[in-house]
User: What shape does this take?
Amino acid sequence: VAAGQSVTLEKRTIVTTSRDYADQAELVAAAQDLVSQVDQVSYDDLVAAHVSQWAQRWAKSDVVIEGDDEAQQGIRFNLFQLFSTYYGNDSRLNISPKGFTGEKYGGATYWDTEAYCLPVYLGVADPQVAKNLLYYRYHQLPGAYVNAKEQGLKGALFPMVTFNGIECHNEWEITFEELHRNGDIAYAIYNYTRYTGDTSYVLHEGAKVLVETARFWADRVHYSQRKNKYLLHGVTGPNEYDNNVNNDWYTNLLCQWSLQYTLEILDQVDEDVLKDLAVTEDERRLFKAIADNMYLPEDADKGIFPENDAFLDKDLVPVAQIPSDQLPLNQHWSWDKILRSPYVKQGDVIQGIWDFIDDFTPEQKRKNFDFYEQFTVHESSLSPSVYSIVAADLGDEDKAVELYQRSARLDLDNYNNDTDDGLHITSMTGAWLDIVQGFAGMRIRDGRLRYDPFLPKNWTAYQFNQVFRGRTIQVRVDADGTHLQLLSGEPLKVELGDQLTELK
Assistant: This one.
């Protein structure tokens, strides 16, 4: 190149994989076909297509926050990272806790997807995106049978950590004990069905998942003659700072609920599906007996649900009394010391209250929140968002906003001193959940959308779009109140506080 001249080199990369093609020749041919397609398109047109695709995503999902630039940056950063990782194009794929930003967890799939990611995709994308997450687990049922069989149990146990459906975690207290993941996967089916109104999955593939996980639960529990109840011993709940416990409240609750929901669905499926499921009358009776007589720890004096049978026997010293130079605990304490402590890594009882938030009285929610919040160190990235939503439900706005900030800016501000391992992709859903379910009070009740918003003190307004049953709804909350607008779709009746209104 002569002096004063410039040259531009343009590099184009296409990707093919043997996962999608029968042999190498077919793979190479597909690669060459992609190259020829890309060669016909200019750089400017490729960029325009990219911008158009993102514009469609943001049109459904954007959240606007006025008066707090850090809060605004946090939610958009999180949504961008989430969508860059997964947008539901392939039901064989799922969401890794670190996405493509770090090698920790190796790209494996966790229960984070069903508990935290699926409810967000329901609200910000086409329903097929969330449905593909359900199909991901259905296609891995063969591996779930293997996992259950390795424990000498019937039915299906979905893995805690996996690439292909077979459990690949190497710590027994998680692999064999963190059984709540079966319930979280069942709950995701319920969550999808309740939100979308679409029963095509739950009455077919979903019914198979529910029945096979119910068979696992029924074989895993044992009956206590002394208590006249069914129990689950030797489990670990979401709070991994207390493992190998008896009767983790959250796990027992999901076991009970899963069996109840399975029985409900069995009454709705058609004859062909019922025949394929081959559920006997004896199995139905057993499912019902366990659900009706499941033991759920409760302490009448404190008015709380003990996290497990031994939790209240611990030295109950609040987190506030721990010297700040010893936090986070997982970087300063031995594992043995953590396990003997009362400190909660992430919501366990509070996770269950969030899942079934309308099923508990305000007094139950208040007493449990106040009790567990003082012991929770939020050293799981999944934790702050759940507490924020329950705090908002209780009207504790300051605590809800404080924990939203922690969810929204977990990586931007490196709250847990571990962002160098990669971003917390699956917990980035928490910021959206906090605003929509927490601040705006969004609930689905009897198939109807409901909002009960408040405006954080330091914000002048916030606004989000929500996809719901073929509609896109804009919700704006400012000093003048709440404003709802139907951007697309058929008219819809929604509840705003105690008032029923129709959007047209």
Q: What stands out?
A: Strands lie at 63-66, 222-224, 229-231, 443-445, 448-451, 461-468, 471-478, 481-488, 492-496, 499-503. The chain has a mean pLDDT of 96. The radius of gyration is 24 Å.
